[in-house]
## 1
Amino acid sequence: MTVQTFIPSAVKAASENTVTQPMHTADVSIKKLYIETQGCQMNEYDSHRMADLLGDSHGYVLTDNPNEADILLMNTCSIREKAQEKVFSGLGRWRKLKEQNPDLVIGVGGCVASQEGDNIQKRAPYVDMVFGPQTLHRLPQMLDQHQAQVEKPKKEKIKLVDISFPDIEKFDFLPEPRVEGFKAFVSIMEGCSKYCSFCVVPYTRGEEVSRPLDDVLAEIAGLAEKGVREISLLGQNVNGYRGETFDGEICTFPELLRLVAEIPGIGRLRYTTSHPLEFSDDLIQCYRDLPQMVSHLHLPVQSGSNDVLQAMKRNHTIDVYIDKIAKLRKVRPDMHLSSDFIIGFPGETDANFAETLQFIKDLDFDHSYSFIYSKRPGTPASDLPDDTPEQVKKDRLAQVQQVIKQSSIDKTDAMLGKIERVLIEKVSDKDPNVLIGTADNTRLVTFIGDAAWIGRFAEIEITEIKTLNLVYGELLNLEPDVA
Ligand code: SAH
Ligand code: F3S
């Protein structure tokens, strides 16, 4: 088979700095909003929310051209690398646009905003608004405040910086999420309280806060009515979900999954991301009981060495992870497992690395992400001595990526002759008789069919492997619409 690089949408979005759902319009009187999104699916989700908010409050529509925008928003990420520098070089480009158009409004949100606060305006005084992941719902008011003080002399202007953590308020003020075809992302919790020693998330997004149960269920029921068939539950640690019920009780993540699975119309359930520590037996039972749950799990482990896991403060051993996966594969033998790995963590020895490599082979991971450790200011690991040469880290990363890639190719090849449950999503651009859908394991599946079937699930027998992420098949059974 030919190998194509697999780029999941979240990663693609990060690398291409995508704009969220642009709309094209020739009408110059319509105010236009451009959003640059860096980073994870949570940021993608937040960018959609920003667009919805400013659309509802001020009538802004999205554009994919920063040159024609009235507002430029940068939704930043600080998980790795010199994120701050990336933000400031991007803002440098926007400064030129503001010189040509002094009315242009520039806002910076996301995790770099949360970390840097007023420093952003100290380094880039042409930035008008700074907001964190927890205050983006206040954007319309911030914009009003900005507009109210545009004419004021500089010394009378107040700085518009709000990077506070107003608890759950963010969830209360938001409009319905946007439906993207038959799939939708629903945020169920925010932040993280795990404090892994390398990670900025608990500092930039705050501690874990769960959305109330009824809000989540009502949102999903509304989406199902609009035709959504696949829900991805989002959060940094979804299995840490503890949502309040209407009578003050607490609903856990497995309980939430069971309730969502009962909503008419929801034919498929995914979630990202979860933590091995809270990957409970109850959650494993959901895989036994709920056919809507996909046979695909992304469960970050970070390293295959107990020494490294301990230094990372992941609070579990490799054996704990292996046992949980063994239990899961008992109830779902066809489970596709993917993970995140950090390579070159401070103190990682050749022997530690060899354990990680062996672990990846043993657990037979599908498409996984691997990154060289990046020192993050303010995290406990940033004080650890790190004497592994950069070239050694790069060599280790290359080895890990080679093993993961080969394993992903093997997984696709193994689909030949198997029957996959596919959500039919669209007609091929190239041939109106060919339909395209996604399998549980995220591979695209094409087959001959009728456009009227779009939005339904089908059993497809895989007859040809085309690329790492694309297979051909034949229809065996078309499920009745789940609504
Ligand atoms: N909630 C997830 C992780 C979210 S961050 C969990 O349970 O692990 C997404 C991924 O970025 C992490 O899984 C980790 O592999 C990577 N990452 C986070 N901080 C990093 C750092 N300082 N250097 C390199 N990679 C990092
Ligand atoms: Fe980060 Fe660890 Fe939480 S990786 S998001 S602190 S689980």
## 2
Amino acid sequence: MRDGKFGFGLIGASTISRERMIGAMNDSGVALPVAVFSRDMARGRAFADEMGIPKAYDRLEDMLADPEIDGVYVASTNERHHAEVLAIAAAGKHVLCDKPLAMSVKQAEEMVRACEEAGVVFATNHHMRCGAHHIAMREIVRSGQLGELVVVRVVHGALLPAHLQTWRINDPATGAGAIMDLAVHDADIIRFLTGDEIVEVSAMSKNSGMGTDRIEDTALAIFRTANGTLGHIHNVFNTPFNRGSIEIHGTMGSLYAVDNMGQSPGGTLHQRDAQGEREIPLQHEELYVRMVRSVVAAANGQGEVACSGRDGLRSLAVALAMLESAQLGRAVAVQP
Ligand code: NDP
């Protein structure tokens, strides 16, 4: 605790921390970024100075021993998450880990188990759950207004900004590619909206000019859920004019969310049914602020995290099944 607020340690002098998460912690009113751990002390110190963070460490164990740190936000490249989360849990600190949680389902299971055994909160930073359109859509689905769900469609594409065209498109060891980067979010939001599990996927992927030979920048999957709903996900790194959208179609109504797949609040939601078409009014809120507040509340025993470690495990399982399906050229069952 620092000034009565939840003290976050950050793992990695990362872009997402610089552009989103440090601001979200500061704006949350309940948390503060207290320290950053970077493998490179000069980079960590410069990052801390730039972002107004009091402390920098270049040994994770030193940051984890800092009594002002209540929890750790993990924003390193994906292959580091597993070992780092195990170390955080062993130190008895709460965890907010970015996606994809790990490189394998087995690793993610170990992370979930370690946090459960340590009695610490484990959240996954699937921020889209915090979007006003998605919260409203989930309520409408739950109310039964759409009838039986038949088809779901998620379009998740944009232009990967030039400063992020690094490991995501050229380093397989990091869990690179559009599927590990984007499809995990889609799998999670589908689970969140439908309350259903994706059980089978059939995927294709390709390079559209940004990825290297071994790493896809474009992917498309069809899927089936446990309740029998069919759906389609599309992920792409190099379509700058792609708006991003979700459609949910049921036997009694349909929902259309547009411009809803980004990191900032905004976008619209329309409902169509026998009464006609109407726009659903939304109270937009900063997505990552909502996520941070949920982690702090859960750590204080006052609620659930917006997205749990188990949720992150499930979204990872779907993305890995997509990768396998694209490679094998056939449908793949998602690891239960
Ligand atoms: P970055 O490439 O910006 O940072 C990743 C790591 O690379 C950092 O933690 C840092 O670790 C290291 N690093 C930073 N700068 C350099 C450099 N100049 N040279 C060498 N290493 C460097 O990644 P992102 O911030 O884009 O992503 C981090 C994680 O967050 C990923 O897991 C990603 O999937 C996730 N993410 C989630 C988003 C969401 O909306 N939920 C959005 C964006 C990313 P260190 O300082 O220890 O060396």
